[in-house]
Amino acid sequence: MRLTVFNTPVISQLLALLARICLLISGWTVEGNKPRVPRYILVAAPHTSNWDFFVGLAVGLSCGIRCHWLGKNSLFWGPLGPIMRWLGGIPVDRTKRGSLVEQTVCCFKGNRELGLVVCPEGTRSCGDRWRTGFYHIAKGANIPIILAYMDFGKKEAGFGPIIKPGNNMEKDLAEIQAFYENIEGKIPHCFSPVFSRKKTTTV
């Protein structure tokens, strides 16, 4: 696997120490066990503000997780490309509607180790439905879904249950929804863990 901010020698260790100090000073605690499987989808929620990125990054660095994320390929052009990849970015072509799930499944099948962070809400603005593309990716790649959270009410972040997509999507989504029901986002009224029941290939 290529070098990223999460596994660059010396730099990643220094950033991990800084992340732990920042979390301690700001009163955040981290609960649960970090992913110990080589390939997985990490659901990150709630996602209601720009602060989610910084808290999530600090948690990832402090726990030694190697995270990746999807970005439109235009973000990776020119001199920004190496920087975005070092930050964990994976370029995808979002202009091809309906192919994002397939592109991501191929990424997993082409890597022996890959942890991908996905925000099912799709936006930090208030939304009424979660997207289910991450579920179709996990099922297509035959990998587990790990539920991660950031509770701004308790100042607690961490890792919850592991969901292995089966033959009953409705049951799996209901379990995911139940886990997030009592978790508070930075902007509480913008967080509603309700899934769209229509089959979709949107991440």
**End-to-end span in angstroms?**
23 Å
Task: Classify the helix fraction into a percent range.
Answer: 25-40%
Q: Work out the helix count.
A: 6
Total beta strands: 7
The major beta sheet can be summarized as:
5 strands, mixed
Give the spatial strand order of the biggest sheet: 1-7-6-2-5
| Rg from Cα | 16 Å
Descriptive terms for the model:
alpha/beta; single chain; disordered C terminus; two-stranded parallel ribbon; five-stranded mixed β-sheet; 33% helix; 203 residues; 19% strand; globular; 6 helices
Provide a short characterization of the protein structure:
This protein has 203 residues and is of the alpha/beta class.
Task: Report what the structure shows.
By secondary structure, this protein is of the alpha/beta class. It has one domain (11-190). The chain is built from six helices and seven strands; from the N terminus they run αββαβαβαβαββα. Helix 1 (11-26) crosses helix 2 (51-63) and helix 4 runs parallel beside helix 5. The longest helix has 16 residues, at 11-26. The two termini are 23 Å apart. The model is unreliable at 198-202 (pLDDT under 50).
Indicate the topology.
Layout lengths: L10 H16 L2 E3 L7 E7 L5 H13 L5 E4 L7 H7 L2 E4 L7 H10 L4 E5 L14 H9 L3 E7 L4 E8 L5 H12 L23
Parallel strand pairs: 1-7, 2-5, 2-6, 3-4
Antiparallel strand pairs: 6-7
Helix pairs in contact: 1-2, 4-5
